[in-house]
Write a structure and sequence with these properties.
Blueprint: E1 3-6, H1 12-27, H2 43-51, E2 55-60, E3 63-71, E4 93-101, H3 110-124, E5 129-135, H4 139-147, E6 151-160, E7 163-174
Parallel strand pairs: 4-5
Antiparallel strand pairs: 1-2, 2-3, 3-4, 5-7, 6-7
Length: 177
């Protein structure tokens, strides 16, 4: 079956393998995401999301090609961002975290499909305000999000998920419900 669905325990090894593949690409200079092996993301990152029911996976060709966490939890670093919509009620905000696409599926629309799913998920949960973040180094993600109508609210210098010296790009978009 192809499509996006909530993850199950059996998906965790494949999600962790995607993290590993991306980290290898970073270490070999073929990608710039700003993650550190053994720090973030890890298998525990995926398990924590699975355990609270917020991990989703995109299946293609019988394997997990992409994964992300979708919830309403805005990370503390977001407080430092100059949001276009700063005073919206938190229950109207949906957040996309740790969107990963296996490099073997790069350039095949997986990221775009996942963001479309995220937007529809937010609509069905009456959350017109979308937020997400990426590392300033991750120019590929920044291009993708800009092309999908996300506005870069600002860059927050921080330690993020245990990674020092991150320039966290905070992005947002407002949906018409």
């Amino acid at each position: 079956m192809e499509g996006i669905r909530k993850a199950v325990l059996q998906d965790i090894p494949q999600v962790a393998a995607i993290y590993d593949h991306i980290l290898t690409e970073e270490e070999q200079g073929r990608a710039a995401v700003g993650w550190i092996r053994g720090v973030y993301p890890t298998e525990e990152t995926a398990l924590a999301s699975l355990n609270v029911g917020t991990l989703f996976v995109l299946e293609r060709e019988g394997v997990i090609a992409a994964a992300a966490k979708i919830d309403q939890n805005q990370v503390p670093e977001y407080a430092g961002a100059p949001w276009r919509y700063p005073d919206v009620p938190p229950e109207q905000v949906m957040v996309l975290h740790t969107l990963v696409v296996d490099p073997a599926f790069g350039g095949r629309g997986c990221g775009k499909a996942f963001v479309a799913f995220y937007e529809e998920y937010a609509r069905t949960h009456n959350c017109p305000y979308l937020r997400m973040d990426t590392n300033a180094r991750n120019t590929a993600a920044r291009r993708l999000y800009a092309g999908l109508g996300y506005w870069e609210a600002g860059i927050v210098p921080c330690v993020f998920n245990g990674i020092p010296d991150v320039q966290l790009v905070c992005l947002e978009k407002k949906l018409d419900l």
